[in-house]
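User: Continuing from earlier, I have the next pair ready.

Assistant: Great, send them over.

User: Here they are, in order.

Assistant: Folding the first of the pair now:
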Amino acid sequence: MTPLAGGSGSSSWGRGISPGAAPHLEGKTERVNPSLIGSSPDTLSDWRSGGYRGDASHALAGAGAAAAMGPGDRLKQPQCHEAKICMWKYLDVHSMDLINKAQTTDELKRVLAELFQLQGWESDPRAAILLDLYFYTVQFSREHSFSREQSSAFFTIVKDTHEACVETPLPNVEECYRYFTELLFCHAIRRPPFSIDLFSQEQLALISDYVVNTYFRHFKLYKYAFTPQIRLDISLSYVGMPEPEPAAELGPRAPLREYISAQLCQEMAQLRLAVEEQLRASEEQFNAKLALLEKVPNSSKGGGRGRRK
């Protein structure tokens, strides 16, 4: 069992705490340009002087994408959420007491897994990602000596931001970041009953830097791991243009279909020839009978004229 350390570099991503964890930055946090939020890892690595931590993307990508959406599933559009005071929303006083009693990494993860029904995190990559996200959130609160109220509110801010991220597979980084900042201000400005001054300005800056550097830096990876994939099939039709011929069917039955089609075409051609021959023979017989009938009246008419003379 590994004891929980108090330094910011005590629990790093690459120390094998859990596969698919949200990265925990060592040492001093740094401010990220908001225009880079949700960008690809390559873009963020170009911006960050220290280089991008590739093990973070590998861990989240290892969770695998969700099942593709079916044709009957409705695609949920990005929503704009209203920020409210959320202290004690997920972690009440009793839950915070259980968390504070946990003195080791294993104990803290066990408590969080029991509180949020993540007991199968060792075999479920998504549960492991959520558990590490919650673990590092609590660890950050401990490192900066947050009170129980502050820890509960900060945990709720992170969890609600994540739920807003994964509610739709469509891009919604702007909506999520706006919701995150509004949640922060709801707990940093004294304006009851709409907001309270729970965090100081220094704590507000620390929380903002931490969430941007850990969660929003890997926004697309979280969305890839927790939302279904979208496959878009597009067919274009132009007015006045002939319709394209359907593509040949591929598969194990395609040769059989081709053989049957060839045999049918051959039989149809033979049947057509037989019908044409019958029609030609019938026409010749009809013409012969017609010619014979034309000769009989002409001969009888000629004989009558000879007797009158």
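And the other member of the pair:
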Amino acid sequence: MKDSSCFKRPLQYYCTAGKGLEEFLVAEVRCKLAAIDVDHVTGKVFFSTSEDIEKVRGLKSAERLFLLLRRAPPLAQTGSAGRVEDVVRDQIIGQHRVWTEALSLWHQLRKGLEEAGPDPTGPGGAGRGSWSRERRVEKGLSVGAWGRGRGAGEPQPAPVCFRVCCRCTGSFARTFSSQELGRIVGVAISRQLGWSVNLREPDLEVNVHLSDDHCVIGLPLLRSPLASRSYIRTTGLRSTVAWAMASLAEIKPGSCVLDPMCGVGTILLEAAKECPNSSFLGMDIEESQLQKARDNVQFAELSGRVEVIKSSVKAIPVPSESVDAVVCDIPFGRKFGSKSDMAASLPAIVAEMERVLCVGGSLVLLLSPALAADLKRSCRPSLPHRRTSQESRPSDPQHRPGGPPPSPSTDLGSRPSPSTDLGVPPCTPSTDLGVRPPSSSHP
């Protein structure tokens, strides 16, 4: 078993996504994986595909990847812990066969990932409990199904060691904490399947999300988030957001792309990895940031296509109408601060970006809502021959990396966009863009 394409039927997965990035991920799985049964809720995208698991692992707008075990309607509301245990047993655990088959699929996918090479999301990262006994799982699977119900005299595999990561929202959260429901689910799994609870060194983790809308159960396929890129040494802007910004720019082969406030170069790296036939130029006024950017470019082996220089964004040292796309994360003054008064400087900065942008070029900015509102009040509208990130786009998903971006009103961050004509969907850098599990789980 080397890849998921060997299965006769498409496998069901789901990925977590940062708030506002769900539609980017929907477009990406459809374009890259020819996914079917695609659906999304806040923070999650569900899909089925027969593509190689290594290709699934290459998703750029996703946070974490799971094998979907069960997606069901919300649990019936009950008032007692005893009744909740009955509901968990009937609606969450369900049939033993479903769990046995899911465990077998999980192991085969994990094996396929191991055969494909090291986890590209980064070194280590297993966190607390590292699935260190996968070989024992493999041995148990080779002699039969897990759990009870085996005949006398048959070889008995060691029980699966597991832990539960439970996330509870909505009305259930007002009655039970995530830890309490996690304990109830864990006890039910242990009793019905014969698995053994091990919080420190589990064979696998069972992720459960209970809300007023649905009940989702999945098995994580990777120790580290997909968003933890192996080719980025020093992190800055969240890589999923950087990739989404690059996709909005619709970078074509042969394009020249500029990030005039590049910081450590995350946007440049994400765009260059996705668009191998284009060139990229990054600038920053801070030498310490530039050195990190140079280290990142060298570490990612992109020195031939990505160049970084020291310069002020108010005086970009390139000729007018010479770049095809400008993609920039404007400092918010929060997590990544700015020494100058950004609100006062922003009109001049945008004017300089428009000067170097060629006819038909793209301007993609990441701004806080406050800066976007200031820019809308103080700047003239974008020049008609230059396209901003929120204008209409071709319907052909091949026009951009990973497929079409979301509709113009989609917010990349956690708040509605105050400006639709400037092409500046906001996102607070300090916002957690993943679906963060309780502290007892790995990141």
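Worth noting for the second one:
The mean pLDDT is 77. The radius of gyration is 24 Å.
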